[in-house]
């Protein structure tokens, strides 16, 4: 029963590490998806005194993906009853050209400032509106949220690693007699510590399976998908192939490295 309790403690500790890493990955994917959505919705308004082609806009900065003219027909339609056809036609000729620029990615505030400066250097462009203040607020909030989750995940991983070390020391004490007998017969360190590595590897595999089952349940009930769809985002919280393999590698690496640390430390003491 005591051995089972130690196994459960290590499995829970490894699961906590894997879960915190996966939460960070999921948050990173959510922010990327949100950035992509903002990229599609975000645009820069340009006022020009002459017609400009999409090729000319792209030549100004590589971040510009496409451009489209903003029609002024509705404005002119409203003025039909207030102006003569001749004046209306003259106004149509002298009216500046309006364009909406879409970008290839969600820009940083520095990239917006740089783009505005490049556009304004063109003699044909009279004004550029990038809505920088609104953009800065959204972008900084996103980065703050990502940084908080990253710090939180690192803190959990660090504390949990200390708990794993403690559990492995308990394993070492439980198998101390067997390891001492093997040492008397001249068994190398790796051989007499094989039982510790075997237990660590088995628990790492179990922790990875539990993680996969946990995210399977989350996706089965779909409550996270509902929350994400409310803000127009659809992502895979857990890719059972790539994320599963990565989680297994992390679990095995943490278990083996910490076990190796315990074994080497004990060997030096002897």
What does this structure look like?
The structure is a single chain. The protein is an alpha+beta fold. The chain folds into two domains: 2-37 and 137-269, no CATH class; 43-130, Alpha-Beta Plaits (2-Layer Sandwich). The chain has helices at 2-41, 54-60, 73-78, 85-94, 109-120, 132-174, 176-184, 189-192, 194-221, 223-229, 242-269; strands at 44-48, 64-69, 97-103, 125-129. The chain has a four-stranded antiparallel β-sheet, with helices on both faces.
Task: Describe the secondary structure blueprint for this structure.
Layout: H1 2-41, E1 44-48, H2 54-60, E2 64-69, H3 73-78, H4 85-94, E3 97-103, H5 109-120, E4 125-129, H6 132-174, H7 176-184, H8 189-192, H9 194-221, H10 223-229, H11 242-269
Antiparallel strand pairs: 1-3, 1-4, 2-3
Evaluate the radius of gyration.
30 Å
Content-based structural category: alpha+beta
Amount of beta strand: 5-15%
The global form is elongated
Kindly state the number of beta strands. Answer: 4
Number of helical regions? 11
- Spans of at least 5 consecutive residues whose pLDDT stays below 50 are none
Looking across the biggest beta sheet, what order are the strands in? 2-3-1-4
**Sheet of most strands:** 4 strands, antiparallel
N-to-C SSE string, H for helix and E for strand: HEHEHHEHEHHHHHH
List keywords for this structure.
single chain, alpha+beta, Alpha-Beta Plaits, 4-stranded antiparallel beta sheet
